[in-house]
Each structure stands twice: as structure tokens, then as C-alpha cells.
UniProtKB/TrEMBL annotation:
This is ATP-dependent Clp protease proteolytic subunit. The lineage of its organism: Bacteria, Pseudomonadati, Pseudomonadota, Alphaproteobacteria, Hyphomicrobiales. Residues 263-276 have a biased composition (Low complexity). InterPro entries: ClpP, ClpP/crotonase-like_dom_sf, ClpP/TepA. SUPFAM superfamilies: ClpP/crotonase.
Amino acid sequence: MTKIERPQVFAMARPSALPLPVRDDVHAYTKPSVFDRWSDEAAGVRAVERGDNVITMFDVIGEDFWSGGGVTAKKVTAQLRAIGDRPVEVQINSPGGDMFEGIAIFNVLREHPQQVTVKVMGMAASAASIIAMAGDRIEIGSASFIMIHNCWVLAIGNRHDMQETSEWLEPFDQAMVDLYASRTGQTTQDIAKWMDAETYMSGTMAIERGFADELLASDQTTTDEDAKSRDREVNDLRAMELQLVSAGMSRSAARARINKIKGTPGAAPAATPGAGDDWSGLTGLLATLQP
């Protein structure tokens, strides 16, 4: 008897790969305000259950200096290799991070031979929203959010440098517009407008606009209070670093300044950042950076 091979069935066609950057002097980040919102609304949200075919993304996208963690394409590739030729579930609660690393992770996931189900447990913002679009099926909590915006970078130079950077970024913003439009069925004009406005979409809105397919059952998520506390502590450091860099400091100088104010000059990143440190100086420093 001849065996009939059943073709793989996906929720929708796999999206095309996104372009990767070719410049090392420009880096894309999540804005400090996004870290603040994630801390207030989504920090600590986790899944109730986790199988052996699950990849969790409960961290920033890209390597993270302050925690020693972060979600990278290299780590995701290793996890997919360990899972093998099976369907995979990707659980996301992330404020984003390095958009270019997010693009790389998106491209890695889209190459997986089996179905990819994405579950937005708390927030998929910025670079994490790009990763979410790699799902053949996307599920989202009713109180969760997907946030999309234009590529946000830090660059230094004169007006010619700024013009060059602006022109260099246009294809990446357009690639995101095309990706979101392909996934959602929305017009590129509407997608561009939402990206310009830095739009947060709740679970129901994300489904209405095609960014997700179904709401997660309420009993699939929980809040880990210990994780929430750790997430908030590290987020304060991440946001502070970006504010200092925005003010003109190099990243190494910003990190050194924050460590000095914490009372641990030159200290390596700890497993529990902020534990036992004196945070009194950080409040004053942050106040000087507010507009």
C-alpha cells in the first residue's frame, strides 16, 4: 500500500525574510518609555505551563549587559536544533530591544520546518513584535499588547550624517510595513500611520487588525511576583543607560556612571542586578535627564 504524505498545514503562508543591516555604527534600541510601560503593565507575566517544545522570550531582544541574558538569534537557533523537526511554541513577554537582532530571530523562526505558534503572554513590543509575526498562528492575552513603531536608533554626527542615517533606515521601516501588511491584510498606508504613532494594540484590537488570530485562555497566564520584581529592577537600569546615551554618553561611559552611582564601580553584572545596592543617587540622575 502506498503511503500518502500529508502536506504541512500552516495557518497562513510563511512571510518573506527581512533584510539584515550592513553597518556596525548604528544600533536600534527600544525607547526608555517602552521599558517603563512594560515594567508597569507586563513585567513578570509568565505561562502557567511549559512543554519541551517551547521557546520562552521573557527578556529584552539582544544580549543584555545588565542581566547577562537577553534573547539572541544564536540562542534561538540552538533551542530549535534541540527541539528538532517538531511544532514549536514561542512564548513572548518582551519590551523589545535590538531591532536588528529581532529581524535575525524572525528569519531563524520562519525557516523552521514545522508549525510555529506564537503566544503573546504580556507584551510584544518593538523588536519583539517583529518576532511575533513569524508565527503561523499568533495567540494573545486579552490584557496583553503588541506595539509597533518605526526603527528607533541612536546616532551621532552632523546634519549630513543624520541625513545619511535617515536614508539608510528607510528600507528597514518599509520592510516592517510590508511584513505587518502581509500578515494582517491591512493597507501599507494604515500600517505606516500606526508605526508613525507608536501604536499599542490590546489583545482584541490586535485580533481585529490581523496582528493575532485568537485570544489566550485566561488560565494560561500568571504573574510571577519574584520575576516581576527582578524585571523592574533591571528595566530601571536599561532605561537609565539609554537616557544617558541619548544625552551624548557612550554606552561604556553610561554603564560606568550607573555602576558608580550604585556604589559598585567596575562591578560585573550580577545575577540579581540591584541587590544590596544604594539606589539613592539614581533618582537624582534621572531627574536631571527629564525634559
